[in-house]
Inverse folding.
């Protein structure tokens, strides 16, 4: 498992910063036909202590990967964690069918 740290307002993955993206931001990438790859990493939930999955995006022409967070206007703005690893027919791929 990779080392994840929260340093102030910056989330680090193996010492490198992660950018943040909301579901609406991913929908924007899809509408703009921005090329991206999505993968899921297993991480420890800081609240429950259980192992969960988070969604990371690598976007064409961007040096920093993005981590999926909830919209701070509609939620708490935290990293979205999944109890089980999503399958290929679940989010974010499901957004492409809209």
């Amino acid at each position: 498992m990779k080392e994840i740290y929260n340093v102030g307002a910056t989330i680090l993955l193996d010492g490198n910063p992660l950018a943040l993206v909301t579901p609406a931001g991913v929908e924007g990438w899809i509408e703009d036909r921005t090329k991206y790859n999505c993968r899921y990493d297993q991480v420890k939930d800081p609240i429950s202590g259980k192992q969960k999955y988070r969604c990371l995006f690598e976007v064409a022409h961007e040096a920093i990967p993005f981590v999926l967070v909830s919209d701070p206007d509609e939620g708490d703005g935290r990293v979205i964690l999944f109890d089980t690893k999503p399958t290929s027919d679940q989010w974010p791929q499901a957004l492409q069918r809209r």
In short: The chain has one domain: 4-97. The radius of gyration is 13 Å. Residues 50 and 93 are 25 Å apart (CA to CA). The chain has a mean pLDDT of 80.
